[in-house]
Amino acid sequence: MINTTNPAVVHPMVKFQRKVKSLVDSGVIQPSDSLWKIAFLFGDDWSHWKQELEEFEFSMQDPIGDLLAVESWEEEDT
Fold first, then answer.
1. Could you count the other beta carbons within 10 Å of the beta carbon of residue 67?
2. Is 48 among the domain residues?
3. 67 within 8 A of 17, measured Cβ to Cβ
4. pLDDT tens-digit map of 27-39
5. What's the whole-number average pLDDT of the chain?
6. Residue 78 placed within a domain
């Protein structure tokens, strides 16, 4: 079977998720913390990431662990 996906193309939310996981792994934030807490860590980029999270139906009160639990960031066609 031929793999038709390009492994070099990574969804931006995957990169964001990895950054957040790194912050959790280093003890800066906890999985039980609310998403709004990472706003302070992303500074000027936060408005972009907040909008992305809201498009995936996250609220800023959701725990960071919910973000880390996402296995696929594929956007569904409607």
1. 20
2. yes
3. yes
4. 999 999 999 999 9
5. 88
6. no
